[in-house]
Amino acid sequence: MELSKNYSDGHSQKKSSFSLEDISLFILMALVFLLPFFFASIPLFSFQFSKSFLLSASIVIAFGLFLVSVLKKGSVTFPYHGIILALLSILVVTLLSSFFSSSLFSSLVGYGFEIGTFSSLALLILFFLLTTILFCSKEKIFYSYIIFFTSFFILTLYHGARFFLGPDFLSFGIFTTLIMNPLGKWNELGIFFGIGTLLSLISLEIIRPTRFFQVLLWLALVVSIIFLAIINFSLIWMLIAAFSLIFFVYILSTSTNDKEKDARRLSWISLSLLVISLFFILAGNIVGGYIAKKINVQSFEVRPSWSATFEIAGKTFKENPVLGAGPNRFLTQWFLHKPAGVNLTNFWNTHFVYGVGLIPSSLITSGTLGFLSWIIFLGFFLYIGFKALFFKGREQFSQYLVVSSFFVSLYLWAVAFFYTPDLTIFTLTFFFTGLFVAALSFEHIIPVKTISFTDHPRISFISILFVVFLLISTVSFGYLVIQNGLSSAYFEKGLIAFSQGNMSAAETEFSKAVALDKKDLYHRSLVEVNLVRLQQIATQEDISSEAVRSNFQRILASTLDNARKAVEKDPTNYQNWLVVGKVYELMVELRVQGAYENAEIAYTEALKRNPFNPAINLERARLEIARADFKKAKEYIAGALQQKQNYTEAIFLLSQIEVTEGNVNGAISSVESATLLSPDDPLVFFRLGLLKYNKKDYKGAAKAFEQAVALNPVYANARYFLGLSYYQDRRSKDAILQFEAVQSTNPDNAEVKLILANLKAGKSPFADVTPPLDDEPEKRDNLPVDENASENSGE
């Protein structure tokens, strides 16, 4: 069968000019083509938000045009089957769960149309429904495949060029490493090439393409396997192996009905693909590790385990068994119920917004009713899919469209069950599922229903009124999309200004964002900016004390107001309570009456919402230090260390207290005894090094830090202070080596860059710098290096 031939059916008719439906179809095709590699190279839109904006705008415009065309025609034709009702039931349950959520706004919209929100799910289901209606012919589905493969080859050429020419080639200032890509996460790129693998496999086996298309399909298959080997995501290999086996059996079983020479035909391609998949499943770590080392690709992704997901689900059931915690609220339940052992890992403060997979996460976010609705939908999907695979009396090309769309969409739903895909892959899931239902409808495997608005006046009036209501809702939603996009742009501009140290510009941009969209994130950002501005005002010497006092009071009032508004917007978010506590903690230092009590209340509320986070106890310790209650501060530090025994920040703060209390010698003696009891604990040696450094025993400090680094080579803060110790001991070359090691794991740390530049120039580490960037740890509020970034890079 020639792929160049045009195919049509009873639903499709040639038209002399483009209709509104044709324009809607074109918009959706353009969306599928652009979404895998679309991104905004301007800094005003974040990478993920630019894709969300494209998706939202495209679907809203396409749906609006479709509704107008329905009003003009006076009728609408659509597939009518239980699978569509099951999918709509998921949306209804998600909406109900949103209204019972602890944060309605977060569940309905979120911060940027996250896929866990009601609005995102509604958009994707709308995309699915439009696909089932607009792609209602064989030629349209075939064209959509061509569009997918075109996008596929563009991504292939882009990444192939970067593998050969290096990560700086076409990085656009965004994709600075080889694993960073326009589609999304590194593993998601593998999922995308998994689609290419299945689609090319099925195309080569079922149809007989022209020589040109055959070459392209073989090229797509080979390229997909190469990329799967480079990415080496074990879940994809398992799914490819399972689908290769299923397809092999399918070809073998269906070919027995052929009376010609192809009887009992074996699918050698799927059999070969099965063998390759099994090889990478069994030897993937060795082979994949070798490939990754050869091309200098390192990727690390972490998510909660099955046991952790079910543990949190069980505890959530005790509180909200029917509708769960609410869409997009997995994170709140993670904070409340995360396993204790997580605090001992590098990911103790990681914000997991989903569980082990997207669909299993619905156990927590939508409860038993939500998870059950997903299972019913998948049940309908599997039933109608396997029934359609063996449907008789269909021509070969129709069989190809049904089989290919079913297998690809089944593969993507399996991904959604065992993994958490981002926006692009989840959008393709709904798209290919829509193509599958469209193929079933024009093959009359599922019924098609037509509603006419002109047959009965009463029904016509109600139907037209409903369509007009949908049109108004679409326009309103479009306005919200534009408003959300503008607020996000202002927020990104504010972040850029903040990173450049321009607090005035950052405050202006964040204020513009708040004016358009009063998210708690924007209010929190204003608080962070104002806290920095308050510190700057306190050190000003070129203006009168009265002006300083006036500015300080004005900004402090604004800071407190924004902190309170953040809490009002989402009182379940512990971060909002933390910023309130920080503002009042500053007021404690200013001796404001009642500030301590309010700060204590705020930190207590934060701890209620994230009870296993040791950082909150550390903030409470700093609050006690602000009022010089060192005994109580030590109690909170002990609490933080009880939650996370390897908490470097807590050890650092404890050493500061001991120096302040003048108990350095006693502290050193006790820590030296601890090193004998725990000779394999790098944290103990780090604390000993800090104490000796503060005592100006630089040789002793260097020896302790050396031991800490020997036990943990990626201990960045230990290397940092080891470098300072070497410098004080007149070992500048050794100091440079240590700071180079720190910079390799923390390339964006401005302080490390500054120290390294000074040392290489023959200057002191902190030449031309004012406190708190100096060599006295007791004057610091925090450690100089982000230890999580260092440890993760060393994985």
Q: How many beta-strand runs?
A: 2
Low-confidence stretches are: 1-16, 257-263, 789-795
How do the strands line up in the largest sheet? 1-2
Number of helices: 32
Q: Assign a percent range to the helix content.
A: 55-70%
The biggest beta sheet reads: 2 strands, antiparallel
Radius of gyration: 30 Å
Structural class label:
mainly alpha
* Average predicted confidence as pLDDT: 83
Portion in strands = under 5%
Quaternary organisation: single chain
| N-end to C-end Cα span | 51 Å
Shape: globular
Characterization of the model:
With 795 residues, this protein is mainly α. The chain is 70% helix and 1% strand. It has 32 helices and 2 strands. A two-stranded antiparallel sheet has the order 1-2. α2 packs across α5 (118-134), α18 (503-516) packs antiparallel against α19 and α26 packs antiparallel against α27. The longest helix is centred in the middle third of the chain and has 43 residues, at 457-499. It is globular and about 90 Å long.
